[in-house]
Amino acid sequence: MANKKKTSTEPTKSLVLGENFSQYSLRSSTLQLSSSSAMNDQKELLTFDEDAPISEIIKRLRNIVNCKEIDSSHLSDKKVDIANSLLDVLVFKCTQLTEKALFNAEATLQKNEENEQNSTFSQFQENFSYSDAVRGMRKPHTILVYPAKDSSEATSVEEILKNTIRPEANVKIREFRKFKNQGVAVSCDSVKDIQSIISRLDGDNSAKEKVSHRMPGKRHPSIIIYDLPNTITDQEVQEALRTYTEDGENLRTRFKLKGRKPDTSHWVMEAPHQHFLQLKRFRKIAVNWNMFQIKEFFHVKRVLQINLGRSKAANDTLHPTSDKLQSDLLLLQEPYIYDSQIKGIPQSWNIFNSISNKAAVIIPSRQLHAALISCKQNTVAVKIQTGQQTNTFIAAYSSPYSNIQETLLEIQEIISSLPREKIFIGADLNGHNTLWGYSDVNSRGTAIEEFILANNLFINNSSGAPPTFTRNSSKGWPDLSLCTQQMIGEIANWEVLEEPSLSDHHYIEITIDSSVKNCTFTRYKTRHGNHNIFLKNLKPYVNSLLRAFRNSQNEKDINEATNLLQNCVIEACNKSYRTKNQNLSPTPNWYTQDLEIEKNRLKALRRRAQRAPQDQRNARFQFHKEELKKYMRKVKTAKNSGWKSFCTIATNPYDAHYKAAFRKAIKPAELIALNNQDPSGNHLKIAQDILEKIFPHLANSNSSTYIPPCTANDFPFSKGEVATVIHHLSKGKAPGPDGIDNIIIQQIFKKFPFLLMELFNTCLKLAKFPDPFKVGNIILFHKHGKSKTEASSYRPISLLPTIGKVLENLLTQRLNFHLEKNNRLSNLQYGFREGRSTEMAITKLLDTIHKG
């Protein structure tokens, strides 16, 4: 600076909590300077104060960027647009931290004196700094305890900790959780408590031999290398990566994911910051003279929040918009309803709607499995499994003409039933308050603010964000994004998008940094051949399997042999067959490139209207509104034309178009929290609650043990018996959890018939049904018209291993033959008998009536 001149003696407030940036955050509020004012700005720049507040710096930068000299800007429109966008990002980053600190501090002070709760924003600013506000958000101190590698003790780590750390030790444990490798993470509020645990573990010789401990290391960013062949070793990958980094350190391999191509894997590796920046510059790296794609690896989930305003066109464009933004979860208010159903949504999407259909949670992603927690009049809540914990998402709506306390009470009941859990709320509550953008406060806004404080919630809305609702000349911020304290660290971004929604409301995208944990089952494409390759890969295991079957002398032996058979068959299948991929919902065929170009044009028109001078702004917004109406008509026309074209080109009259129009897809039901059951906990607990209702435990019988008569053993199963059962297996039946379907069983018996015969005859000789064949995958189907919160409203279907079904059919065939041969079945039994049916029972009843 040429001439530094300090004109203020006040202390600097560069990042003081509460500094108001909102008046500088919108481009529409920038000043259009004349030639004389531009000259004044240049003089002011020479006397710039380097200790000025950030708000003053941003104001001057905006004046420089947007100034015009004789109706022409010194920068091109494109550069002005880019500069304003960068300034918006700078303001957003400054305000994001201050707002989170503000709401955290307000929620902490809710039980203090009433005059502190009603204090003004400036008074709050003087009492609390940013560091004071976020001090309560610090993560607790943690120690990781594992079983010792050389220890053969069966005692769990929890029992050792309980025996070592007595209550008199005065160690304040905040959290106690299990994780992989039988380890335990112990969290405390202070370092002193952690040191006390370490000293007691090291001081106890017995505990020192059984467990080991360490402090958690720093988690570095990760990179992912796509489609590496399974034959590549870790050493080869490390050597390839060393050529792209400076000091040549080995990177830790976190885990591997299944590749997109057969016999490949995606490698996820942890890279220190310096190595991460070096590797991130490359799009591909060479490993063994082959190029492989490399990217930054991160688990993020994108949540899209929108009030569709009961617009059919808004519902129609939701699918292509969600596909473009790659949204994983949608929180909707006021969707378009026809015949009591949300229309315009693909049938493959999971839809959870409130009783009034005014709020809905929709999950387009097949990778997310949800559990319905609550379904109320204006509110719906679902739970997503993420790692060891769960995230609950709530969608709610309250009309501006209804009593807001009803909706707030519904949300309150859900929050109260899930104490200390991660909860995210996307709601259109139609309340005015300065905390989320309005310039005034009404009674609804006051009620919402009191609700937020009472439940210790955080507001994710940015005060400098554009309005989430615009209609003609009016605008507002009725859409709120709230979360609990446990989830605030996972909210990576909150943004109002410029994507045209064809509704009065705008899309809100929330990025959540969270990994998702799902249980998936492999299905092989056995109808596409490769059977010879499968049999070739299975052949090396046949002799060892035969020895295992023949050496089985008890229940434990046959269980281990059965497990070995399943593992060998699965290994051969992985090397031979392609796996079935989950069908993702593609962009609809009616959404053409012309519509995408038109949508981008609308976005440009809106930006120009926002930057236009005051005397031209109304005309530009009116022009944008007219063009938006034309776009809505084009969307409706394109959708109708796309459906007609889809039906016209169909060759089979009962193909997909017929099923879409006349057949309602019946999908397996998602998990649901039952009535009178605690909804807290993970998906496993919810599933156990359902299974205990559907399959209750048998009561202990006091009757004496039945002693079977001493009879001769059955003859071994013949090859003809086994061949008949396997030949009649349906090729279209779903397999069990092991993924071995009936086609695989038929191929094994065709090439190695003695293998399955040895297994079945060993089970017959030992009179044991192997435990691995008793493990099934339970699928629930909802009975139409029944309450979703009752276990009796679901029809369970158990998918059992197909090899076990063959053994079951063989035993049933033998048993039916014995009963029929010895006339042990009643003549009045018509069900579950070959050659008889319910029609015969009805005929018998009618004959008896006529004779009477």
TrEMBL record:
Gene Ontology terms, MF aspect: catalytic activity
Coiled-coil segments on the chain, per record: 592-641
Entries under CDD domains matching the protein: R1-I-EN
BP terms from Gene Ontology: DNA biosynthetic process
Domain Endonuclease/exonuclease/phosphatase: 393-508
InterPro entries to which the protein is assigned, alphabetical: DNA/RNA_pol_sf, Endo/exonu/phosph_ase_sf, Endo/exonuclease/phosphatase
UniProt entry keywords in alphabetical sequence: Coiled coil
Protein name: Endonuclease/exonuclease/phosphatase domain-containing protein
Gene source species: Araneus ventricosus
